[in-house]
Design a protein that fits this description.
11% strand, 3 strands, alpha+beta, 194 residues, single chain
Length: 194
């Protein structure tokens, strides 16, 4: 089963659960409609089936209302070999999924008037002294980072998945010692540095 089909199935399941839980207090429930608890149990059974059918190692699902986590549950295994159960506190390697949260936070700051997308990154990170591809390149902006049009390479050095994440000092050194392969705004290129 491809990872995109697996993600689609999980997204569909989570969407269904969230639709079931949207403000249940305001809904007029008839005696034939299941309670929220019954709907959660139905979803949990469905998710356990998906774990088995799709041969997924495990997943954690959470439902948030406003700023509150109202329900969460782990399904399957965090470690299949040792049969360590997936728990709501299981840590995941977020990798590039974190870009979604970062972009959302940046857009919220923009809406609040605290930043502008055309602000140079150095306004916020003065140490961000990447060697540009050409001497007349414009500064790298927040928008360049969000749209992967900054000219930064894909990686600073090796992938960080098998190691501890580098310290801020290590990141500064990695960035300061690298040269951009192309100028900002020239083209799109995915970058883990963005």
């Amino acid at each position: 089963m491809s990872s995109s089909r697996t993600m689609l199935a999980c997204t569909f399941g989570i969407t269904c659960l969230s639709l079931l839980l949207i403000d249940p207090a305001s809904a007029q429930l008839s005696e034939t409609e299941p309670s929220v608890e019954a709907q959660i149990e139905l979803f949990s059974n469905w998710m356990e089936g998906q774990i088995e059918i799709r041969n997924l190692p495990g997943i954690v699902v959470g439902v948030i209302s406003g700023d509150d986590l109202v329900w969460a549950k782990g399904f399957g295994y965090a470690d299949v070999e040792s049969e360590r159960a997936m728990e709501t506190t299981t840590r995941f390697r977020m990798a590039s999924h974190s870009k979604l949260f970062t972009a959302t936070a940046i857009m919220q700051l923009r809406e609040q008037g605290k930043i502008r997308l055309d602000d140079p990154v150095t306004d916020y990170l003065p140490w961000f002294t990447y060697k540009m591809a050409a001497p007349d390149d414009p500064p790298i902006t927040i928008e360049h980072l969000l749209t992967h049009s900054s000219g930064l390479p894909r990686e600073a050095s090796s992938h960080w998945t098998d190691f501890d994440f580098p310290t801020e000092e290590e990141v500064r050194e990695l960035i300061g010692n690298r040269e951009a392969p192309f100028s900002p705004e020239v083209r799109w290129k995915y970058s883990n540095l963005a």
